[in-house]
From TrEMBL:
Residues 82-126 are annotated as: Disordered. The keyword Ubl conjugation does not apply. This is Protein-export membrane protein SecG. The gene is secG. It is a multi-pass membrane protein. GO terms for biological process: intracellular protein transmembrane transport; protein secretion; protein transport by the Sec complex.
Length: 126
């Protein structure tokens, strides 16, 4: 459902961009050239204006719908919960936050068995 609305939203955005570029601006825009056609300049401007309003209303509706769907999917879930895969431990008396689990996040201390393996190379003073 969300994917269908997203595709409609993207198509509306592209159509809205195209219709806005076709409209006649003060400098002529992409709609320049005019000439004789089936519609007069005023009728063409009115039709493009109505199409623009319709596409804009559809774009706003799909934007609001996507926002509501995303908010309902994420209700009560923290970004940190998604990253760690489980809810963080909470203290019952709320005195201090739980310590972070840093296993695998930090490099090993340099005082280990292979202390010289990661040491930077220093040029010899010959």
């Amino acid at each position: 459902m969300e994917n269908v609305i997203l595709i409609v939203h993207l198509l509306l955005a592209l159509a809205l961009i195209g219709v806005v570029l076709l409209q006649r601006s003060e400098g002529g825009g992409l709609g320049m050239g005019g000439g004789g056609g089936a519609m007069s300049q005023r009728a063409a401007a009115t039709a493009l204006g109505k199409i623009t309003w319709g596409l804009a209303i559809g774009f706003i509706i799909t934007s609001i719908t996507l926002t509501v769907l995303a908010a309902s999917d994420a209700s009560g879930v923290s970004v940190m919960d998604r990253l760690s895969g489980s809810a963080p431990a909470t203290d019952t008396n709320n005195s201090a936050p739980a310590p972070l689990d840093t296993d695998g996040l930090l490099p090993p201390p340099s005082g280990g068995n292979d202390a010289g393996a990661d040491a930077p190379m220093v040029p010899s003073a010959d």
